[in-house]
Design brief:
The chain is of the alpha+beta class. It has helices at residues 45-56, 63-71, 81-105, 133-146, and strands at residues 2-3, 6-7, 20-28, 39-43, 74-78, 117-125, 158-167, 176-184.
Length: 185
């Protein structure tokens, strides 16, 4: 098939057959968007140290000295505090749920982290606030990796991924993320 002069090859989907099992996890509460609320911070330690040394030597800074000090600064992204708190809170919860699945299915060969799985992710939102499902999906995927549920969230490990979300105002009192992972073992 060709669309807009781009040949599209047939997609080769892997089939999960009779040996597949679906395990489910539940996260309650707000899922923050990991990439939102990150802050760029300037690291000035080396520049300040150099400038202090110049001052101790009794040197008056020239324009070139100012430029040199500026070039000694760097920047980094500081993580989203809400995301960090989210992981601290939910990692033990996922570990408890993993332990339950391990006790039920370890005799059949279930081993964490899963090296290959499909994921269906459903978000139930308690209010009418319109939110970005993809950002929250990325947060859940990263939480699954950090908790040891899945080995990675790349396309070889977690594929396909299906997600959906909806408003359940007056039906629930807190947001819910319902995660279904299907795997063969």
């Amino acid at each position: 098939m060709t669309y807009f002069n781009v040949p599209i090859p047939p997609f080769k989907e892997e089939k999960y057959g009779a040996n597949s099992t679906t395990i489910r996890f539940v996260i309650r509460g707000n899922v923050p968007s990991k990439k939102n609320n990150q802050q760029a911070v300037t690291i000035r330690k080396h520049a300040r140290s150099w400038a202090k040394n110049q001052q101790n030597l009794g040197k008056n800074p020239t324009w070139n000295d100012v430029q040199k000090a500026i070039s000694m600064t760097s920047s980094k992204m500081r993580g989203n505090v809400k995301y960090i708190d989210f992981v601290k809170k939910h990692k033990p919860i996922l570990h408890q749920q993993m332990a339950e699945w391990a006790s039920r299915l370890s005799e059949k060969g279930l081993i964490f982290p899963l090296s290959k799985a499909t994921m269906t992710l459903t978000f139930y939102f308690k209010n009418r606030y319109i939110t970005d499902t993809v950002n929250k999906q990325q947060t859940i995927q990263d939480l699954l990796v950090e908790s040891g549920v899945i080995a990675n969230d790349d396309y070889k490990t977690l594929n396909p991924i299906n997600s959906k979300s909806g408003c359940f105002v007056d039906e629930i009192t807190e947001d819910i993320a319902f995660i279904s992972l299907t795997t063969n073992f």
